[in-house]
Automatic annotation (TrEMBL):
It comes from Corynebacterium camporealensis. Pfam families: M20_dimer, Peptidase_M20. Its cofactor is Mn(2+). The keyword Hydrolase applies. One of its GO terms (molecular function) is hydrolase activity. This is Amidohydrolase.
């Protein structure tokens, strides 16, 4: 009943829902600046008779259906855009210079908004037996993600489990990628400052060579980590910035190095900072340079719960028996992981490639999402609600 209603509702309201997406895409706002986006979402939800609850700054949540002992099923959509210049040439291209929905958050938001409005209309026909919560989260794209604030603001109170989708431009529209266990990686940032007295390159023995020390760290640390950490955990250290020196015959007094540490293993993530610090000390000890290490903890990996992932697979197969594919494990970070530290849940990959032409990538100014992915996403979420309702009835 729920899935069929949501599907029919979307087919009737498709033009309206797509217009929401185009409005959001045309008016992107970066992390913690999503004021007008929040206002727009509130306005649409209230037009459908719902009562959204705003977060202290930006973002909001809305509940549909009753509070029950089992708890609500929640859906999360991220609403922020990126500081990226759009070059798609779409008729609804970004009107804000240098800001674009280059990660598909406009699509995530539209899907969640469509679900909430469809369920609001369903409630007027037949009251839901379960509670649903839709969370519109700000600031997914910044360190360490807006999810931590949203959780602190009580968004998970009374929640049984939580679900989300992320568009995948490498996957054909209509396909839904699911994966139990880690689907993204923990992402930390490391910064290393090296210092020494400097000197002339003709007399290196009278100085401490920060350039040589920098090279030792760059080449030795990734290899040492691969011998100290199980390679099956997907633990990868990559440096992206190295700065030092000003002349070919002068030994500089300082050097700077930064990079990312990623792992798909939550146990490794909780221990990696200590190991990394130990290895840095050991590599630099023979060089005589001084160093200061700053290790920035990021987000843990998204660890999809087995039962919740099975529910996602069943929901996808209910709308299309051919929809489900195995999602690859990504080395990217996602702050949806913070929710899964509190309650079970799962994130799926939502195909958004048309099947023709170039496959664009996330965080790029030429990203084009096939809008048929919105159809799939709304109907998929409706099916998740129905699957959750059935599972709760089976338990009671």
């Amino acid at each position: 009943m729920i899935s069929a209603f949501v599907s029919e509702w979307f087919d009737t309201h498709r033009a309206e829902v797509v217009s929401w997406r185009r409005h959001i895409h045309r008016n992107p706002e970066t992390s913690n600046q999503e004021v007008e986006t929040t206002n727009f979402l509130c306005r649409v939800l209230e037009e459908y008779g719902l009562h959204p609850r705003r977060f202290p700054e930006t973002g909001l949540l809305v509940d549909i259906g009753p509070d029950t002992e089992q708890g609500r099923v929640a859906f999360r959509a991220d609403i922020d855009a990126l500081p990226v210049i759009e070059v798609t040439g779409l008729e609804f291209t970004s009107e804000k210079p240098g800001v674009m929905h280059a990660c598909g958050h406009d699509v995530h938001t539209t899907i969640a908004l469509g679900l909430a409005c469809a369920l609001a209309d369903l409630e007027r026909v037949q009251p839901l037996e379960i509670g649903v919560r839709v969370i519109f989260q700000p600031a997914e794209e910044v360190w360490v993600g807006g999810a931590t604030d949203v959780i602190e603001w009580g968004a998970l109170e009374g929640v049984h489990s939580i679900y989300a989708v992320h568009v995948e431009p490498k996957l054909r529209v209509g396909r839904i990628g699911v994966r139990a266990g880690a689907i993204t990686s923990a992402t930390d940032v490391v910064e290393l400052n090296l210092t020494g007295p400097g000197g002339h390159t003709s007399r290196p023995h009278l100085s401490s060579d920060v350039v040589y020390a920098l090279g030792k760290v760059i080449t030795d640390l990734p290899g040492l980590l691969s011998r100290r950490v199980d390679p099956r955990t997907g633990t990868v250290l990559v440096f992206g910035q190295a700065n030092t020196g000003y002349a070919p015959n002068a030994m500089p007094e300082s050097a700077y190095l930064s990079g990312t540490m990623r792992t798909a293993d939550i146990a490794i993530w909780r221990e990696i900072q200590t190991l990394f610090s130990e290895l840095v000390d050991q590599v630099l000890a023979p060089t005589g340079v001084q160093h200061e290490l700053t290790y920035h903890r990021g987000v843990p990996p998204v660890l999809n719960d087995d039962v919740a992932t099975a529910l996602l697979a069943s929901a996808a197969q209910a709308i299309d028996p051919q929809a489900v594919v195995q999602a690859p494990q990504s080395s990217g970070g996602e702050d949806f992981s913070w929710y899964l530290e509190q309650v079970p849940g799962s994130m799926a990959r939502l195909g958004c490639w048309s099947g023709e032409g170039e496959q664009h990538d996330l965080h790029m100014g030429d990203l084009v999402v096939d809008e048929r992915a919105i159809d799939v996403g709304v109907k998929f979420f409706g099916s998740v609600v129905e699957q959750f309702s059935g599972s709760q009835q089976a338990e009671s």
